[in-house]
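User: Could you check the structure of this?
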Amino acid sequence: MGMNRPRNKPGSTPTRRTPERRPTGRNAPSQGAPSGRRRNDPVRRIDPMQAPRPTRQFDADQAVAMRAEAPANPPDAGASRKKIAPPDPGFVRVVVLGNRLRKYSDDLLAILLLVLAALTLFALTGLSSGTLLEPWSGFLRQWFGWGAILVPTSLGLVGGGVLLHNLGRLPPVRWGRVIWGELAVFLLLTLFNYANGGSVLLAAEGQGGGVVGWAVGYIFQRVFAPADLFVVGFSFLVALVLALDITADRIERALRWLTSQGFADDPGRQLPLPLAESGAMVAEPEDVAPAKAAPTVVEEKARARLTKGERLKNVPVEASKTEARNKVKPKRDKRLPSLDMLDDLDLRRPAQREIDDTASIIVKTLGEFGVPVNVIGARVGPSVTQYQVEPGFVERPGVDGISKQWKVRVGQIASLQNDMALALSATTLRIEAPVPGQHYVGIEVPHRRTSVVGLRPVIESEAFQKIGAPLKLALGRDVSGAAIAADLGKMPHMLIAGTTGSGKSVAITSMVASLILTNTPDDLRIVMIDPKMVELVRFNGVPHLLGKVETEVTRILGVLRWTVREMERRYKLFETYHVRNLDTYMAKAAKKLDVEKLPRVAVFIDELADLMMQAPDETERMVVRLAQMARATGIHLVVATQRPSVDVVTGLIKANFPARIAFAVTSSIDSRVILDTVGAESLLGKGDMLFQSPEMQAPARVQGCFLSDKEIDRIVAWWKDQADIYAEEALADTLEIEADDMPPTVGGPGAAPPPRPPVGGVAPGQPAGGKPAAPRPVAEKLGPEKPLEKPHAELTKAEAARRRALIQDTVLPAPKTEADEAAARPAPKPERPARAAKRPAPEPEPVASAPAKQAAPWDEMLAREAAVEDKDQQIEQAIEIVKKHGTASASLLQRKMRIGYPRAARLMDELKAMGLIGREQQGGKTREVFMNKDDDPIGDQARKIMDQDEE
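Assistant: Sure, the predicted structure tokens are below.
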């Protein structure tokens, strides 16, 4: 068709032919073959139906569309051309639709397979039925028997594989494993048939392995009889192993994972291991072929891979001498609670393989940076493992050009801290370069799981029991698992700092618990200050507490002022008895009965930053004064803060707190503020701390003790139940002993002297500020039975109630009422009728049957301050001057107090408003005074305020 040229129409002008020279030679076209344009055609017309095929490949949809749009009879087609019928439009649509759906064919196939798998599973399990599902499920049961459930499983796996393949997430399919898997399935059907007896009738009914299982078993029976069952079983195991690709390396990694999760070997039986005779590490020979698949450390996927030549074996683990608890439990006072109410927690240790792999990675990483080292051992603790790294030698040319061996500097190891943390995939890593007193560098790597340190194992440890002082604290365990305990009396004060949630409050709680578990209220009193109001209030009700846990800032400052006054009072007692500290004073008090016994006092402040923010000057002044002088009087401070900045932890405070504990902080600057060195910024938190005491050369890393809420509740409940019985029996026993030893007094035979006032001057059942009355005889009513004959835990409720009522009736004096105090005062003078009008006698109140609730020793001081809060600060001094001279005038106050007339006049007006003096007299006479020398108007007002607070 392309060779025909169009004819000229009738009446048209013929086209003039232009002569054309034909090429000759090689360029001449062959005869009978078209050679481009003819001589008679000036312009060649191309038939669209005979157009040359383009170089690019057209889409099938475009080709069909072009053929559909092309005319059936082109106008320039010759008569000899064959007519072609146009394609059917319906066929064209089907072809176009098929081509468009071709790219979704894989997804549609996957969906169909998944749907078929789900329907088949429902039909086999009886969850669904239908016209097509029932025959289909019956067919599968007949042919596959019990293995029919494998059919929907296979369909689902194939459908899921097609979807993953379309998404590009399917790894390359290993057809060998697929074939072995299919063979294992057929062998499993054969085993099912053997298990069902091998009957063909039962197999046809869908039992055992079905028809397929019976057929394969029949073949094995004819070939391998009588050992067909053994051959089938062995072949099934081989096919399963090859299908799942179970190798020795995979089994080893699975066992290591189980070991790390605690399902395999007990880590407690693996560690601690004895130290090796030689500290150097022994690696495997270098010529050993590398493993098929280099195993990785269990806990980190991104750790460096190790070959057998790089892996170390059996890294010696240093066993702590004080790690094991004493086999013989220490003897405890019967008045103290039992340690059985605490949880007995054991440490969780990593596996030996994990320790070896970590040591190998450390050696490899440092070696890659040109720092050869040797790992000579490890110390495994509850939260970290310290690897003992000994620097190696490198060869360098000397001055004379001869190579010499040079020791690796410690600074080179410390500078690669971040690189080792990256290789070990550790969140944080701390390097102690060097360890004090040792010849190695300590690299502390955190564990995957931190082990909880219980309080009971530390209290039962040898390190805690060998401290003979009463103020011993259980702190936790160090990096080797050894129990760490300290004496608060030798510190003598402790400063704690760390971010929120790092473990400060938990550490204070464990310290308080260790103190009340090892001391009676006679030996130790505790003052607690908790501005956060939620941490220490759980100890309210414990008899060791002086008052209650204070949470208000105004009362907290009053508590600190009372503590300073108590310190000064004790120093005056020491001066009187010519002693220099509390121990000497208590030794003299044990020999003399008339010497007041002073218990030790521990003051816990949970948040110093809040106090420094609201009252910085007064807080710092009192804290520094206590820290400087309170040691000799037996008063010790434990102060905690979450902001270790220079405006909170000032230079004066740091100078008087040599013992410090640093929990996790945000920066090295905060670490330097609290410890004067870096390191606290690399801690893990949740009890991980650095402990520095005056006896230590460098801070020690310790995992603090954890005390649960249930344990605290049990301890507090025990002390609440035993507090009244303990106090009353101890008082009765003391009175009996004194009655036997002392000569008869005015009270008659057996009368005992008044009990010694406890710290703060407040006795049980006595109102604040009152004087103890002489007790009545108790020997006649108590009888021959001794009060402390039975332990407190063995006393029945009835016996405890009887003794409590007996002691209250015979020993404790009845609390004084205002009526008794008014009756004890001398009668007013008759010439002063205004006094009776000013001070009417109060109505008598009924005497309570039970003793009054014991108040805090600082309550009276705070009440006196509240009574004169709106008055002049020198009002008490003015009252003392007026009582001493028996007269009142402004000129008298000016002379005695050395103040001006305006202030003296104001003081006189305040005394008149209080009803202590009369009105101004004519002629400059002195005013009348309505009080005696023994009166205490400020104390009376303070008692009223305390009564109102109790109500």
